[in-house]
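Reopening this ticket.

The earlier resolution said the output was attached, but the attachment link was broken on my side. Pasting everything inline this time so it's all in one place.
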Amino acid sequence: MHEEHLRQVEAQLDYLAPFLAQLPPGEKLTRWQAMRVKDECLSDFKQRLIDKANLIQARFEKETQELQKKQQWYQENQVTLTAEDEDWYLSYCSQAMFRIRILEQRLNRHKELAPLKYLALEEKLHKDPRLVEFLKVFV
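Inline output:
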């Protein structure tokens, strides 16, 4: 239900508004401007996809490093741990592994869907009524 809501919100967003706002108001769009708007929009979207992948990757690496530190701590202190400390450690490891798996799944899903999202935006731009007459390919 949440994903459906996000799709509806995305459909209502004017993805060209920030780029068209940079043009002089009231002036008719030229072919060159339309191409530039399309390219800037795609470039910005691509950068956001890259930033999202980098963020997920950074979180994944942080979780992995923290788990490795705890494992190192456990190896060094294993002999002197109380049962309560050992239970805490096992619980921490279980939770950390869960978070790591989730982040790995998110990253893989993002890598899988990012090219499709990019192509979908490219198609939307080619069909956008404000750009369509300028982006026609003459054969």
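Reporter confirms the inline version is readable. Helices lie at 2-12, 17-20, 31-77, 83-127. The radius of gyration is 24 Å.
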